[in-house]
Amino acid sequence: MRRSLLILSIFLAMMLVACGGDDEPIIDPDKTYFSGILKGHTKSVYTVAFSPDGNTLASGGYDKTIRLWDTDDGTQIRILSGHRGPVSSVAFSPDGSTIASGSQDYTILLWNANNGTPLRSLTGHTNEVRSVAFSPDGSTVASGSNDSTIRLWNASNGTHIRTFTGHRGAVRSVAFNPDGNTLASGSDDGTIRVWNVSDDKLPRTLPGHLLGVFTVAFNPDGSTLASGSWDATINLWDANDCIHLHTLTGHTGSILSVVFSPDGSTLASGSGDDTIRLWDASDGSHLRTLLWNFYEITSVAFSPDGKALAGANGDITVRMWDLTE
Fold this sequence. Notes:
This protein is mainly beta.
């Protein structure tokens, strides 16, 4: 009897490993990426995001759609239609099963990432939704809006959890710390605020920019926070103590998007000066500049393995770069 139970236990353990018992997406170490232009949107593209396994890229824009692309060959997989206004932000859940999209129609929509069917609509904001983000465990969606608030939502049933107030301008960007305990927000009021997700305590405020803050992002271990501003600068902060570390200068236009590479060594920034810049995240030194089409770069995203970079452009295209080439 004991031998039978032992064999059964070993078999079940092997099955859990084989099937990915923790539901974490599997990234192919030998994967290669399409490099070039993705065409399909009929109006300006505003936002891009990779799926956690790196096989799909989502893009949203002023044609009110989200489009899913195969990152192997750049072909369009499907179109998600349902918003009544431009799509400002897209995000995949950590397990890759759900897509959240925020729109200028004041709503957030949740979609089944596998078949593109809408799951639920999150309503409550009284102005355009500019940014959406999933918590690291996938249980919560955060949204930032032109109504100057941040809202937290239950991702499984769409119920409202709480609202953070205090910004005096539109909230352009929200980002969860990888530990899931804090949330950063950037606003037109020129400040970054760091909120405790579980309560209504007053947030820490980082007043380091001369103009509005358009984008914020944590590095993978949560130790550093990056912020990009209309003032054409990027600031790096110690995320634990909210101490300023570096100011990155070189762009000649507003910073519209910042993102860290998966290993945390590199920061990418997209700007209104029509360029993407890559920076050394440890000291802020400039590494490389990518030029593109004389249009502002509204969104940038690293693939989960850091081998590729995607960008949304002020025209109607998306572009991917294979950074290994």
